[in-house]
Amino acid sequence: MIDLPFIYDAFVQLCSGIPLTLQLMAVSVASGAVLAIALAAMRLSSWPPLDLLARIYIFIFRGTPLLVQLYLIYYGLSQFPELRKTFLWPFLREAYWCAALALALNTAAYSAEIIRGGVLSVPTGQIEAARAYGMSGFTLIRRIIAPQALRQMLPGYSNEVILMVKSTALASTITMMEVTGLAAKLISATYRPVEIFIAAGAIYLLLNFIVSRLFKQFEYRLSAAQRQPLYRRAAGENA
Amino acid sequence: MKLKIILSAIGLLATAHVAQAEDVIRIATEGAYAPWNFSGPNNVLEGFEIDLANELCERMKAKCEIVAQNWDGIIPSLTAGKYDAIMAAMSITPKREEVMAFSAPYAAAINSFAAMEDSGLANLPETGKPLSVDSEAARPVLEEIARKIQGKAVGVQGSTTASAFMEQYFQGGADVREYKTTEEHNFDLASARLDAVVANATVLAAAFEKDDMKGAKLTGPLFSGKVFGMIGVGLRKEDTALKARFDDVIKAAVADGTVKKLSEKWFKVDVSPQE
Question: Within a domain: residue B7?
Answer without folding.
Answer: no
